[in-house]
Fold each of these.
Amino acid sequence: MNHKVIAKDGIREFIDGLIEEYRVFAPVEGKKILRLREISSGEEACLDFYNTKMSSKEALFPQNEVLFTYKKDREAIEKEATSPMKREQVLFGVRPCDAKGVTLTDVFFSSGEHRDQPYLEKRDRTAIVGLACNRPLNTCFCTSTGGSPFGKEGMDLLLVDLGERYLVEILTERGERLLGAAHGLRDATEEDMKLAQRLSNEADNAFSKELPTEGLSERLDGMFEDPIWDTIHQKCVGCGICTFVCPTCWCFDVVDEEKANGAIRIRLWDTCQLPLFTLQGSGFNPRPSGKERLRQRVMHKLNYFPKEFGSLACVGCGRCVRECPVNLDIREIIETIMSM
Amino acid sequence: MVGGEDKIREIAGRLLREGEVDLIIGYEKGTLPLRSTPSFIRDQNDLYKLIWDPTCDINLSKYLHGRDEKIGILAKGCDARSIVVCGSEGQIDMGKVVIIGLPCSGVIDRKKIEAEMEGREVLEATFADQSLVIRGEGFEEVLPIKGFMDDSCLSCRHRNPPVYDVLVGEPLPEITGANEYAEVDELESKSAEERWGYFVEEMGSCIRCYSCRNVCPMCYCKECFVDETMPAWFGKTNELTDTIIYHLVRAIHLTGRCVDCGACSRACPMDINLKALTKKAEKIARERFNFEVGLTTEEAPVLGVFKEDDSEEFII
Amino acid sequence: MKVNAEEKGSKAKKGGNPDDGWEPKIIAFLCNWCSYAGADLAGISRLQYPPNIRVVRVPCSSRVSPYFIIKSLQQGWDGVLVSGCHPGDCHYISGNLVARRRFAVLKDMLDYMGIEPGRVSFSWVSAAEGERFSKVVAEVVEGVKALGPARRLVKVS
Amino acid sequence: MTNPYVPHIAVLRRIITENAMNDIKTFEVEFEDAEAARNFNYKPGQFGMVSYFGAGECPIGIASSPTDERSIEFTIKKVGVVTTALHNSMVGDKIGVRGPYGNGWPIEAMEGHNVLIVGAGFAFTTLRSLAKYILNEDNRGRFGDLTVLYGARNPGELIYKYDLNSWEKRDDIDLILTVDRGDESWTKRVGYVPTILEETSASSENAVAVICGPPIVIRLSMPILTKLGFTPEKTYLSLEMRMKCGIGKCGRCNVGDKFVCQDGPVFSQKELQEMPKEY
């Protein structure tokens, strides 16, 4: 029976138990922003929220990480790759859309001839404890991109808030190991399961409108030169918010920074929305204006990636819709494309 | 402020019909409650989209850069002043811009409303003269607009655009007696240690997304100083000092140019109080160089000229 | 603005405070026509002044951009001095007058952000003022020494 | 799993200044660690990521041919931060190299065919690698006639003059050199590469064309190649995009759904016709 139940006031204790053995990240209410942060006690975790401002990618694919450092004395240069994390980590309270975003990132970073070791090494040592969405936001559209508010992809455990207790679904063997740190677990009863199912149906029906994404990437195939791109991008000011808050944006830049006696090579988030992304040494830029750059963001997520990996590179979390300073809404773009 | 919409559509329609402009840049209803979005209108039957209410907070003059067609732009007091500054810096051809002036009684601050909602989601918001009706799942609240207005608007000195080609409706009485530098003064009264602590804490959550730079009409450099590589002055990561320096240097670049429209603070996804810096830049222009930003295209920018009797008390 | 490795190395190891023999390192941008010549005169006239400054000669005080000053603070210099010609003496007529506004804005902003006022100082020293140059340097070094090693805006990576 | 972003350390063995303007140099490097040297098996047309520690990393085409035993050469033009740092370095300095990356010129498709190589300006590096590979005695038999058309702005800008001189003396290569503007010592052709391409009109019969050069040369030469009968399947180009990782992960070098660093940089004209015009 892989469904357990834990009392709500037992969850802090469970987290504290995890903290002894793992580095635990959980949504933390900062000054004004809810973000996934490392916590040192169960109290700090906030488990009543819609979604974190930034996606859980922050914990796996940090905004900047040192790829390697090298020391330079007279003759020798020794370089030392950044040592892998010692303790395993647990991302606690991750929403299904973010967890699915993690699986898509895993697929990409492990594809091709060269695997991204810095990310994958962290990912192998990371367990994800998901938290189902009983109340999706008006801007969420995960059901339109193949996800669901009670989705399980990428998770080791799925918690469902049943009111004064959580239903805990064990999805992987690692998830089971995590439960070792929980006390007062009992098997889920028929009634628990029925309540969870009802909440799941309610959440599914909570979406005000379903986005038409059937055949979306095929339709985009012939649309590279379509005139809609000339008007769709007009209000975009070309900042990096939509890509930085997005759980499925993993493009990065690599820079060196000098240090006292050597230097470090850093990988940091980059965005296709800024001109520097493709500006060449000769001064030529294949994507000179906002039109090409917005087209790249839409085409990569809804056409290029699906063609190669079979699923949209958008999990419908709605962050880019909520955070865009000029309210450029990707749902509107999808509807425009589908109505062509 | 509410209800000017039909007048706006009529003026915009006339400008388009008579060929005085090829394009109208205004506001239309956003896809989210409490949001408006920029609207680019070229033909008559889209005019119905134009709206004007306290959600119209984006500074549209950003969209005038790099365009050489004749444009009619809806501009609040602060927006019009930023057009004037860009005009005086030769970035916008004033001859090609028709400013449709909007007397503005202030735009709302979404972050104040979100704080008031304490986590509840706003599903719908409508305006009824001086108040804002917010509806959500199982609740409805009526909020006074004045209580949730952007701080810049509470002490705005130019509710009527100082420069315009056509004004929509009657000018509003200007606000008097509000101390617009209240927050800056309060910060200045603190010790250097406390101020440093404040900025470290605020800037600590910056994710270097550059939305503050990209929504700002004053930021139009082809290559921003943070993007320079030869030499690479400052780091590109969101390491603390590099981030603080980015905001510090941007504020310096805004001295005598920032009209305090608040677009940067409203755009920041991490709710950083950028106005604490930009307002200081504006205060320096006013107090040290006695320069009121954005009133006429004739005056040269503050850091572009000098006077024999500039203050030099800081020089030892 | 290449600072060689030892220079930065020694700063990285600092952390001491005035009484345990810690000596501040101050970068001084001196305008070639007046302040640099003033410094030269101070040297020729055997005037003593603290050896904590490292001089960078610039054609004019207006050649010093805020980036130089902010980058210096970030790289761990304890103090920055920028010195140029008195208004009216500038070899380029108005270089120092343009710089004066720029420094005024920078100084106001740095003070506002919480950098201790004594860290960054500006002065006018003419070519004939060897005496005054040594006094200015002594005053700046004293001011920075009182503040202790630079901590704010220093990039420790 | 090793970190694919960490380069191997290589020592600069030889630095040759290639042009009069002194902004193009060929760097011969040798890996410090023998095992890294053994694993660096490359094809002509592939590129490596060259690092100058403290300045950064950039993608550079491998200019040497795999047949030159263990010497690996990169010809680098001084443009940005990393290339300037490399140009200021001396023999014996240590840099970082990782790779080889990219698909390289289609050697298999060329076997048993005549080969036309068209190069212009500084983009002759990987073409020289290809030419030296074909001219190597073990490989020469596998290919038909080899025609190399190479042009530059003026005689001083022609790179690999030492190779060009030795190729001129050989009878199994038809070397056509041209410059946009000659000078008093220049005796050979004068004219733009596309014009000379049309004049010399190499036969496309059982032939493969390979072209690399600045965008203007490509744009003007392609119609001529088509006119000469080189079909899109038989014409190959090497694209130049900004790159940071070289291994298809950083997301910036894509043209449509293809990553130039992994699926390219060499594409046939046929493939390019199906890709979006974003390069």
Amino acid sequence: MDHATLPIIIFILLFSSFIITMIILTKRGKEVFLRPINGLKVIDDAIGRAAEEDRPIMFNLGFDDLSVNLFCSLAVMGYVVRKAAKLSMPVYVPLAQPLAYAMAEEFWKDGYAAMGKEGMFAVEDCLRYMSSNQSALGAGIAGWIKRDHVGANFMFGTYGFESMMLAEAGQQAGAFQIACTPSFYQVPFFMVSCDYTVFGEEFYAAGAYFNRDPVLTGSLVGQDYSKLVLLLLIVLGSLLLTIFQKHDYLRLLLQW
Amino acid sequence: MQKTSKIFWLLIAALVLILAAWGEVKAMHSPAVTARIADLELPSHFIYRLQTWVAALSCIAVYSFLFKENPFYRFFEHALLGCATGYSCAVVMRQNLYSQWLVPIKKSLMNVMAGSYTREDIATVALIFAGVIGLLWYFQYSKKYFWVSRIAMCISLGAGAGLAFKDTFNQLIPQITGTFKNLCPSEYAMPGAPFIDRFYAGCENAIFVIGTVSVLMYFFFAFGNKNAIVKGSSKIGRWYLMIALGAFFGNTFMSRLSALIERVHFLMAEWLLMSQM
Amino acid sequence: MTEENKKRSLWDRIQFCDPRILYALFAVVVIVFEMVQVKMPVPNPVWVGKLYDKVESLPLDKAVLIDCDYGAGNRGECEGQFKAFIQHLFSRNIKFMVLTWTTNVEGQKLGRQVLDEVAKKMGKTDGEDYVMFQAIVNAGGVTLQSLAKDIHGFVVKDINGRDLGDIPMMKNFKSINDVSLIYRVAYSWGGIPWIGFVQSVYGTPLAAGSAGIESSTAYPYLDSGQLCGLLAGAAGAAAYEKRIIDAGITEETGIGTKTVSVQSFATLFVVVSILISNFAMFMSKAQSRRANV
Amino acid sequence: MSKRNILKIIAFVVGLYFFLEYILPEKVGGDFDSYEVNSPVCVEKQGKKLQFYVGSYYKGRGAIGRMVKTDGAWKKDPLPVLQRSLFMKFDQYGLAEPDCAATPEGLTLLYMGQNEKEPVLCFAESKDDGKTFQKRGPAVFSTNGLFKVSENDPNGFLPDRIKTFAAEYANGRWEVFLFTMTYRIFHAAGPDLKHLALDAEPLAGTTLTEKSPNAFDVALEGGAPTLFYIMDREIMKFRKDGSGQWTPLVWKAPHGSGSNDTMYAGGRCDSSDGTLYLGTKQNQKGRPIDSPFETTLCAVKLRDLSDGSPLATEMTFYKKVGAQPKPTYLSYGTEWAGKFLTVVGSFAIFIAMINLMLFHGKKIYQSALNYNAPQGEEKLPGGGAPMRNFLKNAGYSAVFLIFLAVMIVCALKGQTDEARGTGWKTTFDFLFNAIQAPMGSAVFSMITFYMISAAYRSFKVRSLEAGFLMAAAIVCMVGQMPIGELLASLVPESWKLLQLPWLSGKLLSVLNAAAYRAVLIGTLIGSVAISLRIWLGLDNSVYSSVD
């Protein structure tokens, strides 16, 4: 409607209160349970395997510029760099956006500094700005994977058609691949060539799971409660319609 | 191996050139070409053939990138970038800024000067303020006043956030009420339908509702990890998602193939005139 | 276990063959079936028929608003959908307005070429039976809100620079209430939030002609009634063209029909190649299992 | 007050305006009849002429509005007099086809109440010339004295479902005619609308084709109730003869406003001042007589049906072309805000061009410096003859700038009408049709080759899930192609599951729709969360580069 009807106003107040209260609660330090994402539990095994075979690790940040998606990917990258630094393994990070290069460099250095291994690897040959043209980016990274015989390949963030080139190159090089992207269209290509694929909203959950940012975690939990309300509405509506065969009162109520 | 592939490519190039020359001869007197020239309102046959040749070369340049990045491709890529950027900026200059902003402001300014103006005229004159805000975008090139450029972004972001509620709930409510499905339609719900049709309709509705509910549960993060129902249904949800992803993959192929076929049709029909226009 | 040190059995050679062979085979298939236009029975999806019947039942005192936003990349699919639709509108004397966006100026140029060509063939005049607006900037929902309320005040001029007020046809169409159907031809039908700001507010029926990729996101909206028709990819264009040829509106075979007949063989090639590669994988696994047992 | 807080406040205020404009309810009495107007009916009450019509704001939600003729001009009430009620079973989806009759107690308005079953003939009564109505529910028909009213057929005994109806109150009795779905006319009469005796047999002598009548009404012509209807430009009239039987006075006469198309007369007529007023909706087909092309309501004075003279028309325009829903107090600003933000957006488009020009301009400038720099201190990769080196670094940037400049000038000059034949238009068309369009689609289609090699090599069924995905993909691809149609014709009709087009249709419209609908709900709730965080300033990633 041009203006909110009564049911819509109730929904707006309900969902906003869920999200805002959960954000305030997590800001006050209330421990919030987030179920672990199955694809991310195996990150440690992937790094361990690559360390055993002494093959480098690559972390792709996708095509995001400064945005929520980039910060989620950087959170996971921080975790991976710290794990790799402990096993003194290099982490290559190809980049598609100039602004993302600056932020990634910061996270990369912090990771190695936290494990006391600052000077072990040179920033120039680990972090490289490839190009913001999709086909050039895909070809460049595919070549890099094959040349350096990457052992574990992580692909986080949003991707276009170049997702196919990365996934296929990694699969060819026999790398252990984990993909985590909110872009729904590239998931089929990741699904068939990666060992684990995490998609849709699980990408934001991954970001929240790793960097524990109260705003992101709180709003995720708030969204869950809102979705639960909608789920119950769907179940109730279908049951009501099955009982009163043709009188769809709940639909009439919602479409006042 | 290197030498043979070089010869192989030279042979291919020679064959293509012969076909192209033969195509030119055919183009001289083919009615389809004259019709095409009339459609595109081109002044002469030569310009049409030159245009077709340049278009064909640009396609070959793009496909040559598949094998190796080469200067031929890079030339046409920069030409494409120049044309695309130039065309959209020209359209913005003439059709948006000039005739949707300057012209109405000039007209209503004339009315205001002449004294006889309405409420709309004042509102249009006030749009000059929009131009001032628009110019703030260009402060991003100055280090000191970088934050000023963020004002224009904030106004757009604020408006986007404010309107997101309307866009979201206007889409969401029909989606929710659309999922209220009759799981076992009776004679009363579907008058005159035999039992078997009603049974199929009931199954279809049940599959639909179970699908939506189980995929919704799959995307729960905050609770339900130990609850058996949520664990079971999110497994079912994952099967539904597999099928949806399969449909996405199938349709992605359809689009890419039709783009390639359109290009091959252009090369074969308009350039080499080997297939019917 | 990279492929070099694997025993080069027949199945492995098939599984890891050189991609250039694939490209060559695929190119041959496409070129051969491009030259030999095989006559194929065009599929008839449900939602194409629903859109056709919707246009048949449109009232004459309202106009149709076409949002032409396809690019050079999906001419193969969307140009056929656009051309077939305007031929159908012309044949039923329904007036329509073509809207284009600055964020994709190719849509304006390609749409105008097709529109001028069809109008010349069917004897329709610009300004009387159809009008093409000048491009407008997409600033999200707020653009649609003010466009829906007052088309003249927002768009100001048509593409030839004439004021909308002086165009004879536009005298009767001032706001979205005078529009009987919105039809969006684009790569991604959901790119412009018509549903959130116009379809659900004013009840104006919305139909979509989209590239194949994005058509799979339209089915929830078709099921809930927010979309009243969908032409999915080149197959959708071919189905609509078949309907207007059967109705005798035009004789020439459309772009969609040509594309779809070649596309079915290309699709078959891809499907067969996937099955072969899977079969080769199973055979080579079976062979290696038999080898080390 | 740090700069970041100022920006957050600006975003909050702008967002608040649009949020409130959406949340505030419409001003009472929104333009309920701004979307559609039809089926008017005129009635005369003690010399005052009234007209009722159905107006709908949202497609299909009809409400009944009222117009009064005061000193020669029709004046419209802003509010509807009768609306649908949510919990009254008969008219949940709106009201349609009203017919009004003046009775001693006041006005009675009969209408077809729309609900999810068949429409129900209901009526409402008003004491104050139609300003307010009280609903009385459905009219009840009975045959030879047997009353039976049930929830399934509230109208009591009816031979068939009602398509349209006509009713008149004359000397103490109600005369009601029903035009049924099977093209038969039934007559019913009774003291009041809750006790109407329905004749068992339909009216004799009705030559009805398989079409519904244009106008169908009963009126008092010279005091005697006369049923008349227009069917395909023929007017049929029925009047009760001496013995109480309704005999057809067949009278065929052309009518309409002279244009060859029929005058669409969707309304009723009333004859209190001796002449028949027939409310009609303006002719949809041809151009109307002389009025601008608007949806108009007119009361047509039929001077005399017998002499066949064309109908005189009395025009009343009342629906404004371009009417809009009644805004809230904040809504007047949304149009201006739309233009404001669109102009701000159009300024932002030049940034991409400026960035590219700066980038390529810098490359050319540095290569020029490097051109005559001595061998050792080149800033860019050197080697080879200076000119070859310059071209290698700056050549492509120069190509970009040249094409940019040429395209801007040609696009500006070439698109206007007067430039149709000139060189500008040809160069613009040349650049577009030779470089931009073909390369755009070539780049888009280039990925097909990657897909084919990736599909062949890495799409292996390694897990059951990948197998499901593969099967769905193949069914979807082949099912929507003519190949699927060919294969389907080999399979017998009844084996639906093996017909790929049917299977891919079901797969897309049931399984894929259900799964993607849940993903959609998740994304919509996600966008509510993100916009809430940006609006309330909780999200700092957006202002990351501002201190």
